[in-house]
Amino acid sequence: MNAPIEKFESSDFSSLIQNVLQSRYPGCDFAYFYGSASKQCHNADSDLDLLVVFTTAIQPFREKFVQDGILFDVFVYDAESLSGAIHNARTHGKFVTVDAVLEAMTLPAETPTSITLKTAASRVKRAGFLFTQKSFFRQYVTSILDDLQDQLSDGERILLAVDLFKLVIDIALICHGVGLCTRRHAARQMERVAPAAYAALCDALNHAMAGDTDALRTLARHHLDLLGGPLRDGFRQPITDAPRMPLPVL
After folding, report:
1. pLDDT digits over 111-134, tens only?
2. Does the pLDDT value for residue 47 go beyond 60?
3. What pLDDT score was predicted for residue 178?
């Protein structure tokens, strides 16, 4: 019977991961082991997070599987593809891969390539997000604030409040140099870099759910001011989901 994951120590993980690398990814150069298990703060439902890197060119992919009773969540790259993913963080603002590389333990051992990629990730992290979407955020938050002044059903108010909550977190993380995150990682990062603001935002969301959006709108306006204030006039955004097609024959 397999031991629960919470009973594993770092040395157990190292051996387990090296077995996985040999059996599933023969020829890989190394793997970055990151996430809660790498920090010994995992629980019974945690998985093992890996970035597996080859030196030869491959098509990157992600897979999940169970081995020895443990769930693995694995991203597989070649070195140049991972380098591209790291550098793309500057333009799309999502630093999840960069942070994973920086915090990771390298198994079975550091290599020249693993060190080079960590150095690249460190440089990109220091350089920060090339924030080119300021007008989009300004227009979107302005639009939601305007909508929240209308007569709304409970469902409409709740959905708009949740959208606004997420947008304020995005703006706060950008302004703190963190970049954009997904789902719980965004909340976790804001709680880390701005705990008082995060607590106030959560409290405001709770009030909005109960029908009072005043506090949430006040916090949103404050964060909107950090980007230059409301934007209604002079906004233009490319429409990307309208591919050109010949007209149908009638």
Report:
1. 999 999 999 999 998 888 877 778
2. yes
3. 81
In terms of C-beta distances under 8 Å and separation of at least 24 residues, what long-range contacts does 16-19 make, across chains too? Answer: 16/48, 16/67, 16/68, 16/70, 17/48, 17/50, 17/107, 18/107, 18/108, 19/67, 19/68
Domain ranges across the chain: 5-127, 134-226
Strands 105-107 vs 61-67: parallel, antiparallel or unpaired: unpaired
Yes or no: say if 76 and 58 are a contact pair by the CB < 8 Å rule.
yes
CA distance 108 to 25: 13
CA separation for the pair 143, 137 (Å, rounded): 10
> Domain 5-127 classified CATH 3.40.50.1820?
no
Residue (of 52, 181, 179) closest to 117 by Cα position: 52
Residue 46 has pLDDT above 80, yes or no: no
Nearest Cα to Cα of residue 205 among 226, 225, 227, 190? 190
Residue 207 CA to residue 197 CA, distance in Å, equals 15
Q: Are 15 and 33 in contact (CB under 8 A)?
A: no
Helix 154-175 and helix 214-226, axial crossing angle in degrees, nearest 10: 30
CA neighbours closer than 13 Å in the CB half-sphere of residue 166: 13
Q: Which pTM was predicted? A: 0.73
